[in-house]
Structure prediction request, 238 residues.
Amino acid sequence: MPGPDLEQLKQQVIACRRCPRLVAWREEIAQTKRRAYRDWTYWGRPVPGFGDPRARLLLVGLAPGAHGANRTGRMFTGDGSGDFLYAALHRAGFASQPTSRSRDDGLQLWDCYITAVARCAPPQNRPTAAEIANCRPFLQQEIALLRRVQVVVALGQVAFNGYLRALQEMGQPLPRLTFRHGAHYPLAELAQRPGLPHLLAAYHPSRQNTQTGRLTAAMYDELFHQVKRLLNPGDRAS
Prediction:
């Protein structure tokens, strides 16, 4: 029996209630809200992946923000992390606009798809290992369905480890790899498995990183320039 396509998978993600702690938290936040968003109807459900189904670039994040994607229903939308990320994607030519305010604001991704290792907003932005494991089948199905991906960017160490764990559970014999911003791992060579993508590690665009100067716009510009250098120019999405 064939597996789901991306649209069917999105509906499975949205309906998920596997993690009682996360269900309770995301729904509580959706009711109590932040004062600045008191007029919003919060999404308050798991957040599915978003982007171009023929993408050659896959971005993997950590989890929805409590008042960002948990409010808007779209990854990296409605908070400072999204402002930083989408501005960089726009400068690099992967996004149609530099801002992302709501899931119906017209934003389009070109040759890029965004997902995360956890789909529900977690308390203190820290999903447990068990909660990430509960979400892992969703990520693995996306990996299988996004057949054109050539470059994966892991946004933060949790996303980096979660993506590698997903591949290992899918039977890919990967060595132990170390997270550091700017690290580049040609997985096809390392695993001797043609077809695996390049993996780039990057700091997460959290305010903790961007407001302290640990992560700058120039660093992300260089990251996405590297992505474009790694993409096969003869295999553009169309």
About this structure: Residues 129-145 form the longest helix (17 residues). Strands lie at 50-51, 57-61, 112-116, 151-155, 184-186, 198-202. Residues 140 and 166 are 6 Å apart (CA to CA).
